[in-house]
Design a protein that fits this description.
The complex is a heterodimer of chains A (about 110) and B (about 110). With about 110 residues, chain A is mainly beta. Helix content of chain A is about 0%, strand content about 55%. The radius of gyration of chain A is 13 Å and the shape is globular. In chain B, strands 2, 4, 5, 6, 9, 10 and 11 form a seven-stranded mixed beta sheet that branches. Chain B contains no helices and eleven strands. The chains are: A mainly beta (about 110), B mainly beta (about 110).
């Protein structure tokens, strides 16, 4: 079965700092990859997704992620965070052709003003 | 506007009292799913449905039932709720792209 690992449970940083959240998955075949964000008290929203093509994907709010197939990784980055980026971030993966999406345990990001 | 609608958003109930959380989507998606979110555990899939009258168990189906009589609706049924089902529940739907989530239903079982 597919598994998704997010390395950091809780990240605390100051505004303007750079952010990188790790995500690794276990499946060796073709996958679709997603990062979702959940702001306090809200539902999950899509930040970005990768299906094919350029492995560097740009999403909303200045986020980007890089798919490294050889490392089974899809790490999320933002060069300069803002207080409003305080949220929980989830990596998700599904096997191409399978509807089932597997989620990581999530990383809570706290940005101090 | 594309959306997934869940009701109720908040519910406090007692052990053993049957309840249903409704979910409806307006995007004509075939796939729908229920997740529960618990601290430190991320999102765990309860049940999913590939189409009308087609449902299957996810990772944590115990204590839950679902039905899919219409394409747009996918209710989650707790026949006899227990305190370990206290959680935040999300309904979601998708086609071949992203998963769209409802606003969530926070359930407390006393």
């Amino acid at each position: 079965a597919q598994s998704v690992s997010q390395h950091n449970h809780h990240v605390i940083l100051s505004e303007a700092a750079s952010l990188e959240l790790g995500c690794n998955y276990s499946y060796g075949g073709t996958v679709n990859l997603f990062w979702y964000v959940q702001y306090p008290g809200q539902h999950l929203q899509l930040l970005l997704k990768y299906f094919s093509g350029d492995p560097l994907v740009k999403g909303i709010k200045g986020f980007e992620a890089e798919f490294i197939k050889s490392k089974f990784s899809f790490n999320l980055r933002k060069p300069s965070v803002q207080w409003s980026d305080t949220a929980e971030y989830f990596c998700a993966v599904n096997e191409r052709g399978d509807y089932k999406l597997s989620f990581g345990a999530g990383t809570t990001v706290t940005v101090r003003a | 506007e594309a959306q997934v609608t869940q009701n109720p958003r908040y519910l406090i109930t007692v052990t053993g009292k049957k309840l249903t959380v409704t979910c409806s989507q307006n995007m004509n998606h075939e796939y729908m799913s229920w997740y529960r979110q618990d601290p430190g555990l991320g999102l765990r899939q309860i049940y999913y449905s590939m189409n009308v009258e087609v449902t299957d168990k996810g990772d944590v189906p115990e204590g839950y039932k679902v039905s899919r009589k219409e394409k747009r609706n996918f209710p989650l049924i707790l026949e006899s709720p227990s305190p370990n089902q206290t959680s935040l529940y999300f309904c979601a739907s998708r086609d071949t792209g992203e998963l769209f989530f409802g606003e969530g239903s926070r359930l407390t079982v006393l």
